[in-house]
Every structure is written in structure tokens, then in C-alpha cells.
Please model this.
Amino acid sequence: MNELSASSRKRYDVVIVGGAVIGSSVACFLGNNPDFDGSILVVEKDPTYEFSSTAHTNSCMRQQFSAEINIRISKFVADYVKNLRHYLGDDPRVLDLAFHSYGYMYLADNDAFADNLRAAQKIQQACGAGTQFMTPDDIAREYPFYNLDGIIGGNHNLIDEGYFDGGTLFDWYKRSAREKGAEYVTNEVVAMTRNAAGTRVESVTLLSGDVITCGQVVNASGPCAVLTSRMAGIEIPVEPRKRYTFVFAAETLLDRDLPLTIDPSGVHVRSDGAYYLAGCPPDDDHAVDYDDFEQDHSIWESKV
Ligand SMILES: Cc1cc2nc3c(=O)[nH]c(=O)nc-3n(C[C@H](O)[C@H](O)[C@H](O)COP(=O)(O)OP(=O)(O)OC[C@H]3O[C@@H](n4cnc5c(N)ncnc54)[C@H](O)[C@@H]3O)c2cc1C
Model:
């Protein structure tokens, strides 16, 4: 149990529920926006972040989406990650973030999925992404180690797609947000009240009993987001699902990076420094309890 801390004031322009990567990025972007001069409170119930998604991320980014807005967001993210120092006011303390652009490789084993990949590639290309549709021969030429039995094609993009150092980015979000005046407290939002018209949240109640009035509330509570929104009487379609990650060593390393390869089975695998990293959802992919972080190790043998 974390020791609760109190905020220095009883009113903030913006109260952010959850101080992991999304909550801290909102605080950082607001703090660095010259048009914003309001006060920011970030309420985080567990500053160790042990059970946050942020602490478990595989830290990969891609531009292979089928909706234009997602591709454009990802292009901005790539630019942001590569130019973090500039985005944080040319702060010389900000070092270049590690970024390995080995790309995602989506493999298709049937015509319908290959057609989807071709259609997505056209949308991505129109948005300026570097995705290429590859035949099995193209893939074999670039990556001779794949077993391509049953594979009829794949989409791959080597530009601004792959692994980046998300941990350091998260650290800078928090540091910059604090330096620009955002206040972080260790506490839990347990209730909210709406204004008389019911159009906005006007205060949040913390586990400590403190009531904080606010101009705006940002719900950045990850898989718990629906529990948070229910405090304001709003139902949103967010539910926790299990995702498993396995890191393993190989007796013989491949002679080049293994792209983040998404096999038609749903298993993905990629290079992870001197190791490899694989992951997948369970076959029975249902919503789980909010505090269920049990890993099913048998999936390594039975599926991966
Ligand atoms: C195994 C795995 C691999 C992933 N790989 C990738 C990847 O390669 N690329 C990618 O882009 N994404 C990946 N993701 C997804 C990514 O990690 C999440 O989208 C991201 O971390 C979500 O951040 P968040 O801040 O919204 O939520 P979280 O990190 O879950 O943080 C929510 C925070 O809210 C706090 N909180 C909750 N309720 C309250 C409350 N009432 N009061 C106060 N605090 C509260 C929690 O303590 C927590 O710290 C992966 C996720 C997992 C689990």
C-alpha cells in the first residue's frame, strides 16, 4: 500500500486521473503549451506503476493501420520520438532516444487477408508511410530465415516503425510536466460530482477524503478507465484483456534484425537486442478482472 500524499491546493484547472504514460503525456503537452497557463494535478494511485500497462509495454510503434487518422498520429509520434529534445524546448539534457526501425511484417496465409494488406498498403502509402506489399519471393530475398510455407504475401515498412525507448520517453513526460508546474500526488480518485446541469465533472474525491474542484478531468486510468468514467455516470467500452510476452535467447542469433513479425496464428515475434521477444493473446480472449495479472506460462509451449 502506497502512502497517500495531499495536493497543495483544493482547486485545479485540470485534474488527470492516472499518471502513467498517457496521463503524464497530457500533463507534459499542456505544460509545454504556451497557450495554457492553468494548474494541473496528476493523481496516481501507484507511483511504482507495477500494474500499469505502461510498465509492461513492448514499446513498438507502427504506421500499418487502415484508418488514416491512426497513420497520421503515428507519423507525428515518430517525428516526436526522433526529435524529443526539440519538442522539449531544445533542452540539452534530453538525449537521443534509441529507435530501431526494423518494421512490422504482417504475413497473410489467405487471399482475403492478402487483399486487406494490399488495401491497407494503399491507404498507408497515400499518407506517406513506407509500407510495401511483398510476395513470398520478396520476403525470402530479404529474410531468408523465414519458413514461408503457406504464406502468400506480407506488408512491411522499414521507415519509422519498430522499437523505441518508451521508458525514457515516459520519464521525460513526467520530468518535463513537473518542471512546467504539474503537481503529482499519490492518491486514488474514488468519486466525482457533476455540476447542476450534469454537463461536466466539477470535483473529484480522493481516497484520503480530500475533495478537489476542477475545470476539466482527464481520464487516463488505462484498463481501469471504465471504473473511472462510471464515477461520472458515463459508460465507455473499455475492458481489461490479457496479453502475454515471452523473452527468450536463441542458440544461434539471426544474422540480421527480425522484424516484428505477425504470424497468421496471432503470435508475434521480433528481435529484442541480443534476445527475441514473442507474444500473443490467449485463444479464449475474454475480459478479465481489473486486478488479474496472472501469466499463463503454458501458452509458451502450447501456442508460441
Ligand atoms: C504486454 C503489453 C505490451 C504492449 N506493447 C505495446 C507496444 O509495443 N506499443 C504500444 O504502442 N503499446 C503497447 N502496449 C499498450 C501500452 O502499454 C498502453 O496503451 C499504454 O501504456 C497505456 O497507458 P495508460 O497511461 O493509458 O494506462 P496505464 O499504463 O495502465 O496507466 C493507468 C494508470 O492509472 C492509474 N489509475 C487507475 N485508476 C486510478 C484512480 N482511480 N486514481 C488514480 N490513479 C489511477 C494506474 O495506477 C496506472 O498507473 C502494450 C501493453 C501491454 C500490456
